[in-house]
Amino acid sequence: RAHLEAIEALNPRLNAFITVTPEQALAQAEAADAALARGEAKPLTGLPLAIKDLFCTAGTRTTAASRILGDFVPPYESTVTSQLLRDGAVFLGKANLDEFAMGSSNTSSAFGAVENPWKRQGEEGTVLVPGGSSGGSAAAVAARLALGATATDTGGSIRQPAAFCGVAGIKPTYGRCSRFGIIAYASSLDQAGPVARTVEDCAILLNSMAGFDPRDSTSADLPVPDFAAACERGVKGLRIGIPREYRLDGLPAEIAALWEQGMAWLKAEGATLVEISLPHTKYALPTYYIVAPAEASSNLARYDGVRFGLRENGEDLKDLYERTRAAGFGEEVKRRILIGTYVLSAGYYDAYYVKAQQVRALIRQDFDHAWEQVDAILAPTTPSAAFGRDEKQDDPVAMYLNDVFTVTANLAGIPGLSVPAGQDAKGLPLGLQILGRRFDEETVFAVGRAIE
Ligand code: GLN
């Protein structure tokens, strides 16, 4: 009830939720009470969560923040959300996001932009973005509208909004969480994960979200370790890599200082710092912005006005497709579809798409080499704190630069955790990121807990 009241009071301003489901939440909470009274507590019994509106929820409208899904009500539940329900969680509603998870500012939602609950000191009138695409999830957790949230990360969409909103968030290893029932953006990069107030809360949520699922052919058939226990391992004896190529020209002094602070904390806790090289880092953003739109253009072909969602009637079938897609998709989604179909088209496929796949393999190899020297990598999550809602909106490339430190983990399939670690001169939260070996979230959690 406290969370539902907070949503009622603050959601009109923050717009963190697209759909609130109070009746369902109260019914689930009552069931949780009854289970507790019977002494049948499960890992998440009664814990109120926000669900990114990219996860299909049976019987509850799921929009991907797009007009094209209209009033789509899925007949089935995503694997991740069904596991959360299995473990006793309470769902408050569906969190806002950038349309189809494409963006870094949560300004492209068909249901309106999300506001970051934080304000710059002395500039309280300026509305800041929560980051994206999981801006609703991060804003809801930061503003105490939910105890935790589900999110997805294709190129940074869990970690960047977590950093902008002063909360924790982890993108697990590709294959750790099932993608079944999550609306696809770029299937070889998409991964679900939690956003929560603390590293340990993320670990507890991930324990429920993760696990093998035969309905996702890329899901890993591996046991799920006790992530919460791993948080307490400490970092003594660990080797922490500091990648030289992440010291970008023009990196703001406060981001560099935060990074140094993180290094000092880990050293004080008994870790060894090792300078490493990830030589193909500079190609990561262009590679990502070819691979992701290519896969998106293919995944979004299914929104044709025939099978589900919005339909704009036309003169004939082709006209129906065109009218539906013209009316249903927003500007950024159309831009990605155009880029994607271009790089996949005959004559350009080898020059762009195949080349990007080759560079992606090199980026993955950079990390494989790094793991011979270090157990985890420490880097900033973002090159800046949250920016104003009116900034960067007319320059897609400036917007894409937000993702410079996050896309590498998706291209390589490795886990990445963002931890709130400091603030900028105006009091805004800043995040540090810990990257780890494939399926070694445990070390990532241990390091994250040490700098939290
Ligand atoms: N900002 C990146 C993009 O727009 C990442 C989004 C995501 O991780 N879903 O593609």
From TrEMBL:
GO terms for biological process: translation. The active site is at K52 (charge relay system), S133 (charge relay system), S157 (acyl-ester intermediate). Residues 1-444 form the Amidase domain. Its EC number is 6.3.5.7. It is an enzyme of class 6 (ligase). The keyword Transferase applies. One of its GO terms (cellular component) is glutamyl-tRNA(Gln) amidotransferase complex. Pfam families: Amidase. InterPro entries: Amidase, Amidase_CS, Amidase_dom, AS_sf, GatA. Keywords: ATP-binding, Ligase, Nucleotide-binding, Protein biosynthesis, Transferase. It catalyses: L-glutamyl-tRNA(Gln) + L-glutamine + ATP + H2O = L-glutaminyl-tRNA(Gln) + L-glutamate + ADP + phosphate + H(+). It comes from the Bacteria. GO terms for molecular function: ATP binding; glutaminyl-tRNA synthase (glutamine-hydrolyzing) activity; transferase activity. Allows the formation of correctly charged Gln-tRNA(Gln) through the transamidation of misacylated Glu-tRNA(Gln) in organisms which lack glutaminyl-tRNA synthetase. The reaction takes place in the presence of glutamine and ATP through an activated gamma-phospho-Glu-tRNA(Gln). Heterotrimer of A, B and C subunits. Belongs to the amidase family. GatA subfamily. HAMAP family: GatA (MF_00120). This is Glutamyl-tRNA(Gln) amidotransferase subunit A.
